[in-house]
Amino acid sequence: MNGATAYLVAAIGCVIAVAGVVVAVLALRSRRKQAARPAERDPFRAADNDADALRGDPRQLRPGDVVEIRGSSYGVRGTLRFTEGSWGWSEHLLDDARGAKLWLSVEEDPDLELVLWTALPTPDEPVLPGGTRIEYDGQHYTLDESGRASYTAAGTTGLDPTGTVRYHDYLDGAGVRLSFSAYGSDTDWDMSRGELLTRAEVLIYGQAPAGPDDKPTGRAG
Fold first, then answer.
1. 216 CB contacts (<8 Å, ≥6 apart)?
2. Residue ranges under compositional bias (Basic and acidic residues) (predicted)?
3. Closest CA to 89 of 98, 80, 97
């Protein structure tokens, strides 16, 4: 190898070495930028977390807990956890010192939705669900959703530990809910009226330790 050739080989080697250093530095800078970039967060979810820290997390309600709604305290007697395809929600049986019984439903759709349900007496003229519009007690309601779900029960609910439910949910113009439900092979429809609650109207005092069946509500997967 003559001097010119040796010089050329050495020069090429230096260029390759410098290029390798540049590539390594750029890769390191890229990794540092990625590590420094904060993870994307849902600002509304962050607000929910703040409310949960102050007022308790409704998604974690279970039998034995105490919940305060609009200044009235209720014990959680039992819990139903429903699944329908990839969707899930919970309903909690509440009662107070006077024996009043209500249901609180907890669902993320995708925002957290809390609805307080009151059972309705069977009217003299039965109202049957299924149509897109129905009338009850002088109010007109429009079908919101219907389906069939599976459930598991914990605590005192008056139902089997597991089973199925058929439901039809309606809304009026003011957002009041009217729900029809029939469990198992029951052909009679239970009726209830629901009122949407704000997050600030619900305060939770957790009493019971979490069990294996206690899962957050919302879309699975």
1. 59, 60
2. 38-62
3. 80
Q: Which helix (H) or strand (E) holds 141?
A: strand 139-155
Q: For 119-177, how does the pLDDT look when each residue is reduced to its tens digit (9 = 90+)?
A: 999 888 889 999 999 999 999 999 999 999 999 999 999 999 999 999 999 999 999 99
CB 49 within 8 A of CB 56: no
Helix, strand, or coil here: 83? strand
Classify burial at 80, counting beta carbons within 10 Å of its beta carbon; exposed 0-12, middle 13-18, buried 19 or more.
buried
Tell me the pLDDT tens digit for each residue of 173-208. Answer: 999 999 999 999 888 999 999 999 999 999 999 775
Quote the pLDDT of residue 100.
85
Task: Round to whole Å and give the CA distance between 42 and 94.
Answer: 32
Q: Interior CA angle at 174 toward 169 and 175, to 5°?
A: 35
The closest of 86, 74, 166, 55 to 117, measured between CA atoms, is: 74
Q: pTM here?
A: 0.73
| Ramachandran sector of residue 95 (left: φ over 0; alpha: ψ -120 to 50; beta: rest) | beta
Look up tokens 């109202």; give the residue.
127
